[in-house]
Design goal:
alpha+beta; Ribosomal Protein L22, Chain A; three-stranded antiparallel β-sheet; 31% helix
């Protein structure tokens, strides 16, 4: 027996990839995610390749994973893919302490983030 199969959350022309526990604050990661939202996949990969942000390498890996999922799992055409969504969420925050002057302590927070990228196949308007 077993559980019935759950309906797919995405449309038939969509695929997604999730990167969890990325060691960067969500605010900084959202700057890079905003760089690729709504763009064609080829343009987004080029933008991430030449971005000077450290986290752009991991965002590019996640985008390429979403493209591979679209191609291999859902039989979508890679040339017609667009980054439909790129949203960032908070993960855990590690708390560390550093000694300061006069016997006090300074709290250091090391935040982690989650990144979800959804690519969608669009028909050419031409």
């Amino acid at each position: 027996m077993g559980k019935p199969k759950r309906e797919r959350a995405l449309g038939d022309n969509e695929a997604k990839a999730v990167a969890r526990m990325m060691r960067i604050s969500p605010q900084k990661l959202n700057l890079v995610a905003g760089l690729i939202r709504g763009k064609k996949v080829s343009t987004a990969i080029a933008d991430l390749t030449f971005s000077r942000k450290r986290i752009a390498i991991q965002v590019k890996k996640t985008l390429e994973s979403a493209v591979a999922n679209a191609e291999n799992n859902h039989d979508l055409d890679v040339d017609n893919l667009v980054v439909a969504e790129a949203h960032v969420g908070k993960a855990l925050v590690m708390k560390r302490f550093s000694p300061r002057a006069r016997g006090r302590v300074g709290r250091i927070t090391k935040p982690f983030s989650n990144l979800t990228i959804v690519v969608r196949e669009v028909e050419d308007a031409a």
